[in-house]
Structures are given as C-alpha cells and as structure tokens.
C-alpha cells in the first residue's frame, strides 16, 4: 500500500472447514442468535471473509462475512460493496504491485485494529491485515495487504479538501479504488467490525473470480 506499516500479529489462525455456497442471491444477513448461541456457533464452525471480484466494475465488488457450517452450506452473515485495485489499466492485474487487485486464493488474517496508524497518507483507523501472497506468475509477492477505509486514526473523518482527494476522508465512489487492498466505506467497515465481534473474528480471507 502507500507506506510500510508495523503490526504485531495475533496468535496463529485456526484453519476453517466447509465450502462456500453464497452468492448475491444468498440471504443478505443472517438473523442474530442469542449471545450464548453465537459464541457456541463461532467456536463450532468459525467465520471467514469472502471477496468476490467484479470484472466489469472492480470498484463494485462484494465482501462477505461468512459462517462455516460443517456438512452444510456456509451462511452469509453480512455483505458489503467493496473495491480493490486502482481502476487503471493494471487494476485487474493481480501481479501489478501497488496497482492491481488481490490475487485469488486464501489468506490468513493476521491482525485487526480500530486505530491503525499508517502515518502520512497511509492507512488509518479500522484495518484488517492479511498475509502476503505470491501472484499467478509465481514471482511477484503482493505485500502490505489490508481491508480498510479512509479515515483518521481514531475512526473519524478528516476535513473536506475542495479539489483534492483526502486519504483521511471518504469523498465518494472513487474512494473504492486502492493500491491493491480491499476498501469499504467507513460505515461499512465499522459494521463489519461489529459483526465480526459478535459472531467471532474471521481467521481467513478467500479471494475468488
């Protein structure tokens, strides 16, 4: 991404089971179980993130929070519009560092925080870091990969700058473009954090299509 970041990883992630059977036709949001049942379900099946690329409009792709259901179809807990790639001619080239969207495959979720400090023009506020990934040419490693938005370190929006695109403020649909990460609106990433805290934090991100 824009600059290098320093994050202390969480404990090793737990491998998940189950396949994905959710698409845009799947339920948009599962009903909330009682708190005790939610904890039990998360422990039994686990959750993961699922990013479905949209080739016709990469800035209008979808990020799902999924619940893995052993021996059954996985369940959509939430879904959000998301973007990945810079929108340029290399925006759909997974081997174009700092330009293209994320390579297909499964990633470990390394860390999540509500107060990431990426410094000047970096990623701030709510952020989920995933592991590096070697793209399909087997040579280029994509690094510093996050699910994030545009905000201040404390999660607030920066001031509007007429004629400029502030990295600390969501100015419109063009902010779905990124240097390779997955981006959500500030409202949606906060909703994702709340859902993940309720159902159990995902330990995997799966990128497809």
Radius of gyration: 16 Å
| Category by helix and strand content | alpha+beta
Number of helices: 2
Order of helices and strands: HEEEEEEEEEHE
Please identify, by name, the CATH architecture.
Answer: Beta Barrel
Strand content: 25-35%
Bin the helical content: 10-25%
State mean pLDDT (0 to 100 scale).
84
CATH C-level label:
Mainly Beta
Whole-number total of structural domains: 1
Distance between the termini: 22 Å
Give the full name of the CATH homologous superfamily.
L,D-transpeptidase catalytic domain-like
Query: Strand sequence of the main sheet, in spatial order?
Result: 1-2-3-9-8-5-4-10
Could you say what the CATH topology is called?
L,D-transpeptidase catalytic domain-like
Main β-sheet description: 8 strands, mixed, barrel
Unreliable segments (pLDDT under 50, ≥5 consecutive)?
1-44
Description of the structure:
By secondary structure, the protein is of the alpha+beta class. The chain has a single domain (35-208), classed as L,D-transpeptidase catalytic domain-like, CATH 2.40.440.10. The chain contains two helices and ten strands. The chain has an eight-stranded mixed beta barrel with strand order 1-2-3-9-8-5-4-10. A two-stranded antiparallel ribbon has the order 6-7. Strand 1 (47-52) and strand 2 (61-67) form a beta hairpin. The radius of gyration is 16 Å and the shape is globular. The two termini are 22 Å apart. Residues 1-30 form the signal peptide. Keywords: Signal. This is L,D-transpeptidase.
């Amino acid at each position: 991404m824009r600059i290098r970041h320093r994050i202390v990883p969480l404990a090793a992630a737990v491998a998940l089971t189950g396949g994905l059977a959710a698409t845009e036709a799947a339920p948009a949001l599962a009903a909330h179980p009682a708190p005790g049942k939610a904890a039990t379900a998360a422990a039994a099946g686990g959750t993961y993130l699922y990013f479905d690329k949209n080739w016709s409009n990469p800035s209008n792709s979808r990020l799902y929070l999924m619940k893995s259901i052993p021996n059954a179809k996985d369940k959509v807990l939430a879904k959000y519009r998301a973007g990945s790639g810079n929108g340029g001619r290399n925006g759909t080239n997974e081997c174009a560092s700092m330009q293209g969207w994320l390579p297909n495959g499964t990633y470990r979720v390394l860390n999540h925080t509500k107060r990431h400090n990426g410094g000047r023009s970096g990623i701030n506020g709510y952020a989920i870091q995933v592991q590096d990934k070697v793209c399909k040419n087997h040579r280029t490693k994509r690094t510093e990969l996050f699910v994030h938005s545009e905000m201040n370190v404390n999660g607030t929006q920066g001031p509007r700058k007429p004629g400029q695109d502030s990295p600390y403020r969501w100015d419109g649909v063009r902010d779905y473009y990124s240097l390779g990460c997955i981006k959500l609106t500030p409202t949606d990433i906060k909703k994702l954090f709340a859902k993940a805290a309720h159902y159990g934090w995902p330990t995997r991100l799966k990128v497809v299509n």
